[in-house]
Amino acid sequence: MPPTRYEFRVSGHLSETTRHAVDQLGRLEVVPAPPETIIYGVVTDDAHLQGIIGLLDTLGLRLVALQRVPEFSSERNDSP
């Protein structure tokens, strides 16, 4: 599996302690979207994906949605 960007939606708000634990998984972006929290990040392989899901479960977070999302290009062509 090539590195792929994923979106993890969990119920509720992440405390600072929980957010710190999530940060230990690598470069993940945490975005509050009440009543949920969205966590974006690049997943390198199936084991990494399972590790993230396992950590969310260990932290007591309820995963409500998981999906692959397209990469955003750093270069945009704004010309008509």
Radius of gyration: 14 Å
Number of strands: 4
Largest sheet: 4 strands, antiparallel
User: What is the beta-strand fraction?
Assistant: 35-45%
H/I helix tally: 2
Structural class: alpha+beta
Secondary-structure element order, as H and E? Answer: EHEEHE
Residues in helix, % = 25-40%
Low-pLDDT residue spans:
74-80
Could you report the average pLDDT, rounded to the nearest whole number? 86
Report, as a whole number of angstroms, the end-to-end distance. 36 Å
Largest beta sheet: what is the strand line-up? 2-3-1-4
Morphology: globular
Describe, in plain words, how this protein is organized in 3D.
The chain is built from two helices and four strands, in the order βαββαβ. With 80 residues, it is of the alpha+beta class. A four-stranded antiparallel sheet has the order 2-3-1-4, covered by helices on one side. Strand 2 and strand 3 (36-43) form a beta hairpin. The longest helix has 13 residues, at 46-58. Mean pLDDT is 86; it is low at 74-80.
